[in-house]
Amino acid sequence: MNTIILRTIAPALTALMIIFSLFVLLRGHNEPGGGFIGGLIAASAMALYGISSGVRAVRRALYFHPVTMGGFGVLMAACSGIPSYINQVPFLSGIWWKVPLGNGDYFDLSTPMIFDIGVWFVVVGAITAIMLTLEEAD
Amino acid sequence: MADPNLISEAMRTTPTLLAEWKILTPMLAPLVLAAISLILRQKDQWQFYIAFTAALIAMIGSGFLVFDIIIDGPQSLVMSGWLAPYGIAFTADSLSAIFAFIASLVTLLIILYSPADVDKAASKAGYYTLIMMLLVGVNGSFLTGDIFNLYVWFEVMLISSFGLLILGGDKIQLDGAVKYAFLNLLGTTFFLIATGLLYGVTGTLNFADLFGKVAASEATGTLAILSVLFLFAFGIKAAAFPMYFWLPAAYHTPRVAVSAIFAGLLTKVGIYALMRIFTIVFPEGNGAAFELFGIIGGLTVIVGGLGAIAQTELRRMLAYLLMSGVGMLMIGISIHTQLSLMATVQYAIHSMLVMTGLYLLSGVIGRMAGSFEIAKIGGIVMQNHFVAIAYFGLALAVMGLPPFSGLWPKYMMVMAAFEQGHYWLITAILVGSFLTIAAVGRASIQMIWRGGDVDTPDGQYEARGKRLENKQLRIMMLPISIIFLLTLWLGVSPNTMIRQADLAAYDLLNVEQYIQATFDTGEPEQ
């Protein structure tokens, strides 16, 4: 698989896929997409990079250990239920904040989005950890 | 904006109080701390403290829950502000709360034992994280108010238990894990199929909602099959008679602390699920299931006792004793009166504590003798009186002899069977108890009193065991001593346990309060 075509194109394609995965993650609330599928796309990007440049390059690019990313994701998803406590609604209720952008527009920040980003981290972390381990065992 | 009346029918409009969050702490605290321990897994010296905190918070949370339920009746919280049956409900009655409390306590004791049994590598590989996730799954199963979520929590528990079972990666562990994983996945698959069919028949999966809908449903044939499917699925989890093979095949393979937490918690979750489903979903038993429970329970008690006598390996013997205890619990569900369910709850609490204690003690004995083969263990009484006394006490408890906690539930179970005229169940209980006494008594004569291994002549003392370091022995004996004192206390002064078990049995047989709590909208009574 280690052809020059793949090695040349893979880094660019990886970057593109990660941007696309973030796009899918953020559009998830109202349209098809979300943390799980976005995470899968990002994990595929890591797999592609791993096939072309090797496991060590992927580990270096990730900086954090994939399992740490997974743990961070679980923590984030679980903590997205905490603002419910301050608002006196049951655990994991959707709470929306309107963040003004200055020019009259608002950016909608919400606990479901925090939850989804947590899911994204869990999926990227778990799938990448499994993939890198299998790749190293070869 | 939607019609406000429509919203108040499906969504909660009253504020949620801090007190209502209590029901979440037994799951949320270990979950958050498990995530933190995963992030910090290279710092293996912190792992123990994180896990200890998690189990402690879970125990305190569920302890408060127990008291709240004694005062106010069952508690419920529905996620995300939806109302039951649309939202995901957590509902706890006396049974769920006391089980969650004992499960958290058992986990706490096992975490206390762990430093003596778990090396750095296992700790870095996620031992403490998996223990915490196991607690999340177990407490979730106890506290959930809906069958599908019961399935989800079962999965959380199973996946963590797979991880714990193969931690270390010995050949024998993988062998045990394959049997364990296969049979448990089979059980889970049947559970999921039955859940799907139940949804098809009734259109709901919330326990409280199912109560009326199953009784009103005309599909009695399908429901009868479903009840048997649930019995089969949870029978596998609980290791009841024809589906028990995975338990003795797997429980002696992992490290001792893992065997102990499995013995204390996993089968009891299967029993809890049976108790819950066969009181609120199928209160009539449907499909002659109660007679079936009795047959399965009686056979499990006897086969467990026979298996215990036949074993030559200490931990395999304990696995069969555990199974025999599961049979007792099945008998209690089968008789299905206030007294028998009370005995079942008591026996479950007793079994969680005592089986954990015995498994932990088997670790000490195995370490002292350098082997788990009963033939090779000997002279424990001369090496360490303290260990011998602890074994003696826990052995009396598991046999059901006074002054330990095994006596009362067994006595009440026999009384309940007598009241209902189930004479062959009494026979099964007594034969099972006799076999247990024989097995445990034989093991104690050989391991504790015999001077050395199997060829040592009478009257000679030549134990070749190694002396444990004092520090390590102290770590290992602390949780065992706590269990010893607890079981002694529950045996000498059983009132606290009887009162709590009585409440739990009452809540099981009178589900109105449970249903009321689940559908509670938080609005004041009018």
Describe the structure.
- The complex is a heterodimer of chains A (138) and B (526).
- Chain A is mainly α and 138 residues long.
- Chain A has one domain (4-137).
- Helices cover 70% and strands 7% of the residues of chain A.
- Chain A contains six helices and two strands; from the N terminus they run H-H-H-H-H-E-E-H.
- Chain A has helices at residues 4-27, 35-53, 55-62, 66-79, 83-86, 111-137, and strands at 96-100, 106-110.
- Chain A has a two-stranded antiparallel sheet.
- Chain A is elongated.
- Chain A starts with a helix and ends with a helix.
- With 526 residues, chain B is mainly alpha-helical.
- In chain B, 73% of the residues lie in helices and 2% in strands.
- Chain B contains 22 helices and two strands.
- Chain B has helices at residues 4-10, 25-39, 44-72, 94-113, 120-124, 127-143, 147-166, 171-202, 207-216, 220-238, 246-250, 256-281, 289-310, 314-335, 338-369, 380-383, 385-399, 407-420, 423-449, 470-492, 495-509, 512-518, and strands at 75-78, 89-92.
- Chain B has a two-stranded antiparallel ribbon with strand order 1-2.
- In chain B, helix 6 (127-143) packs antiparallel against helix 7 (147-166), helix 14 (314-335) packs parallel to helix 18 and helix 18 runs antiparallel to helix 19 (423-449).
- The radius of gyration of chain B is 23 Å and the shape is globular.
- Chain B starts with a helix and ends in an 8-residue tail after the last helix.
- The A-B interface holds A 67-68, 70-72, 74-75, 78-79, 81, 84-85, 88-94 and B 12, 15-18, 20-21, 24, 28, 31-32, 34-39, 41, 77-81, 87.
- Chain A: Keywords: Cell membrane, Membrane, Transmembrane, Transmembrane helix.
- Chain A: This is Na(+)/H(+) antiporter subunit B.
